[in-house]
Amino acid sequence: MKLSFSDKQFLVMPRSLFGIQFVDFFNIPKVRRLQTLSVWQWTLTFLFLGLIGAFIFVLLLISPLSFLSVAYVIWYIYDFRTPERGGRRIKWVRSWRVWDYFRDYFPIRVIKTADLDPSRNYIFLYHPHGIMAYGAFLGFSTAAAGFEEMFPGLRSTLLSLNYQFLLPLNREYAMALGVCPCSKSSMEWLLTKEGTGNAVVLVVGGASEALEARPGSFTLTLANRKGFSRIALKHGTALVPVFAFGENDLYDQCANPSGSLVRRFQTTLMKWLSFSPPFFHGRGIFNYNFGILPYRRPINIVVGSPLDVPRDSEPTKEQIDKVHSNYVKHLTDLFETHKGKYGISESQHLNII
Description:
The protein is of the alpha/beta class. Helix content is 38%, strand content 15%. The protein has one domain (24-352).
């Protein structure tokens, strides 16, 4: 029997072979295919754009077009400090239609719980990291989630690992999306040199937290991450907790306990490269069992109320510890208040390490 579909309601009848469920690709609505392709292209970009940019640079350097690589090196040296000085966002890139399809694949929503004064600056602290921080990217580096309409007068700037801005092509693309390095100098520039109305978004847990990302996990790498408290005190910047319910549900990951050979390998890589690849799988374009695509599971990004921080240009360790402790409590309260809305049982709580 031939099935009919609409863009909003559909039924997929996968074909199974040797335990692998294949997508009935030709009977899936066009909008669903576009959603899948939009996430696929960004996943490949996240994983490989830096390597592709470096490869193109070397290829041009040893070709008759070597002058292009030389010209880029000159531009790179001239423009070297730009990522740490507010970057170079391009509104058109952040507003591409592809991000709307990306949003609807999961879907991803941003939920506002309090008004934020655009005459102030804020540090948004995003939890958890997940495998690739899909929610953080879509919510704060594109216009698709409606952040600027939800918080009039605020401009979000997502921070990412510094190495992202060392590689050709990847550097320019990241800046076009409004992404800046997660260095101290970058954060302080945004909080002091770009006026007011800045929401600096830091994914606190980073690569360490990605190793804990699996469905049903609420483990956050936060106990010893106190640099944001120091910066907040130095500039009197309010801290805003952001919890993305569903970010950890997008991939399955092998559990590698502390002390295992795999975890030691990952820890060593992290020391050298500032990141470590988790061993994970999701689904593919043509099957539902394995691949690098995330599962279609909703991400609800709850933006909490601001935690005011007093200003002190030379904060003490005691002040930093107190702000950090207050923030952890503020974040925990946000999680406990909203978890029931997203299918999390009362017995589940944050595990902060």
